[in-house]
Amino acid sequence: MLNTLINKFTPHYQNLKYRTVFLILFLVSLFVRLPFFFRDYVDRDESTFILMGQSWVDGHLPYTELWDLKPPVTYLFFATIIYIFGKSFLAIRLVGALIVSITAFYTYKISITATTKKVGFWAAIGCVALLSMFGSLQGVMSEHICMFFFMPALYLLINKKSPQFYVVSGLLMGLALMTKLNLAYVVLVVGFYIFFLHLKERAYGSGILRSVLFGFGILIVIFLTFLPYYIEGYPEIWWKSVFLASLEYAGARRESIFSFLPITLFMGAFFYFSWKRKYLDFKSPAIQWVSLAVIGIVFSFIKGGRINGHYLIQLHPVFMILAAIFISQLSFLKNWNYRPYVFFLLLLLPMESYLEYANIVKTKINRGTFFNGEGISVPNYIKQHQIDTENILFLEYHIGYWSLDAKPPIKSATHPSNICRNELFAFYDNPRETAVDELKYIMEQVQPKTVVIRKNRSIFHPDLIAENKYIDSQLREKYNNPITVDMAEIYMRSE
């Protein structure tokens, strides 16, 4: 009975058309991500990108009015959506679901150049899952955007040999690079590999030409991000914010080399057994390109000195291709009826989504709206009670600025954690030298009339003892008893 049901809903892989695959991927992406469309924010970075995008729509180039540590294409992505659709969480999250499905679609297209449609289909489904589940991945992150450009670029490098396609691939890689700068290592390796492929054929001129065309496409994008700053007379801001600040941050926030041992050992073991057991055909051009991308991305994590959950978004679309092929070669799977187990696994995996569906229904019943979170309830309370918004500081739930048509009172407060990243101050001409000095300037000079924090949690990272001690004393001494709204506290200045 169960097998009959599974067979009914299992696609006939060999008959799958591209449009059918894309539709399935989009529907899966939409189903998993839909309940999170109504959240105020899923990750703090997403809120910051929205604020930066809104500032650009308002006529301010990134880094001039507000400041954060990402290349400008990240903010251009959000600015474009806001410009077209206005202030809409739904539009941002819907476009996020769309780019996840497009990324997964190119995982499928690359896969079927090296394996069967069946394996490619499940690689793409796995890609959607890993880009949409667990932790903060339901939001729209810069890694989602960069892979939306990276995967089509990789597909063109594998499948298109005409010179013009190297320019197009370079343009896409340039957009990916100007979304996530750590991809510079991957782009550099790809450029050398293009030449190497033709070197093997002794076609030196052709290899040089294609490498140059690829690099030309990348340089066009970099130049176009620089051009507005040059026209407006801010070339130094672009250089310091896009490149120098990122290099400084990577050096200052570098994790121990031992933190990279798990992923390094895992990848080493994966490639060794794939080669030893002949699970992957490393003579296949597609496998070579994908393996190169995987190694380059992991190397970029190590060189960047940091790795966390949403960084892995860059790895999932390419690694799923190799992983799906690897799994399909395991002999015990060929003799084992695993399909019922996979069916139940697919039902259980989106547990976070099921819980969030229940949450939005509960919110609708209790509050009359699907939208939820302190980034929405706090601004609503502030509007209803006519609390001052001209000089307001969100030390948490900073998407509230967007809902209130307000701006952070100072550049470093664009992302609340930037207040404590004193190594970056010089790159946006902040005259203070330490995080405590910055806090003193905010609390004693700017003197925000309203401050919003998270209830029963330290305001900054627990390791920042001096910073937490200072801000706690300021709130205690200079502000009235807080008003609690859900899990937020609103302080109003008493002086």
Proportion of residues in helical segments: 55-70%
Rg is: 24 Å
Are there runs of 5+ residues with pLDDT below 50, and where?
none
Strand element count: 4
The helix-strand sequence is HHHHHHHHHHHHHHHHHHEHHEHEE
Largest sheet: 4 strands, mixed
Q: Helices and strands: which structural class? A: mainly alpha
Mean pLDDT: 90
Number of helices: 21
Strand order, sheet with most strands: 1-2-4-3
Estimate what percentage of residues fall within beta strands: under 5%
Could you tell me how far the N terminus lies from the C terminus, measured between alpha carbons in angstroms?
Answer: 73 Å
Q: Describe the global form.
A: globular
Please give a structural write-up:
- The chain is mainly alpha-helical and 495 residues long.
- Helices cover 62% and strands 3% of the residues.
- It contains 21 helices and 4 strands.
- It has helices at 2-9, 18-33, 44-57, 72-85, 89-111, 117-130, 142-159, 163-177, 184-200, 204-232, 235-252, 261-276, 285-304, 316-328, 331-334, 339-348, 351-367, 374-384, 400-403, 435-446, 465-478; strands at 392-394, 450-454, 483-485, 488-492.
- It has a 4-stranded mixed β-sheet.
- β3 and β4 form a beta hairpin.
- The longest helix has 29 residues, at 204-232.
